[in-house]
Amino acid sequence: MKTGWHDASKWHWAISRYARFLMALILKTGVYYPRATGDLDVWIALVGYGNIINFFCMSMNITGYIFREDIVDKLAWKHQIQPEEVVEVFENKPHVEQLERGHRLGENLYVALGQTDAGRYLTVFFIHKKGGEALINTARNMVKNKTPKAPLPETFKTFEEMADFWDTHDVTDYEEYLTPVEVNVSTHPKHNYVITLSDTLDTALRQVQQKEGVSLNTLINLWVQEKLQQYTVVVTGN
């Protein structure tokens, strides 16, 4: 007998609905930290309770992370967030939801709500790629945005447009479009950084790659490893 996960997911959603409501209440009242009232601890406990029945939910595996150069720069200057903090959120068992709207055509958008190792509460938006990597779209502190609720587009035309929208709008205003997802994070994830090379560097790099007979990924990893070893020798004097 075929049983759709969607109906079961609605049951899970109903159980965890109060958790999201409490989170929204905390954010709207300006109380963010458990040392103030303990409410955020209650929210985390409720989310954990919802995960007891996570076998009814969609599930995904996170095998690694992809950080675009422009996104890393924006996270640093606009939100004061480092890539390692984003990774820590995933490693610390976040609550993850899929957004049924507000994504990019052909690619689903997800939001992860969780903590860094230092206890910082972050909201992370990401696209789950076919290879299992989480392509980070944006991330910010788990605080209530002052921007009034606006209609949520079905899709966004560009990656940047999607990031700009979620930088200024609160996901708790769109809970009718959220579906809980169970996430399994690899213990040895890959970290991919998308950087921009000049035409001259790109040409030179490909010439070396052809001469050495290895992939660009292998060549760059070897060079980075070699450079880090040289740096360690200079810093430590060993």
Automatic annotation (TrEMBL):
<feature type="transmembrane region" description="Helical">
    <location>
        <begin position="42"/>
        <end position="67"/>
    </location>
</feature>
<feature type="transmembrane region" description="Helical">
    <location>
        <begin position="18"/>
        <end position="36"/>
    </location>
</feature>
<keyword id="KW-1133">Transmembrane helix</keyword>
<protein>
    <submittedName>
        <fullName>Membrane protein containing DUF497</fullName>
    </submittedName>
</protein>
<dbReference type="InterPro" id="IPR022148">
    <property type="entry name" value="CopG_antitoxin"/>
</dbReference>
<keyword id="KW-0812">Transmembrane</keyword>
<dbReference type="Pfam" id="PF12441">
    <property type="entry name" value="CopG_antitoxin"/>
</dbReference>
<keyword id="KW-0472">Membrane</keyword>
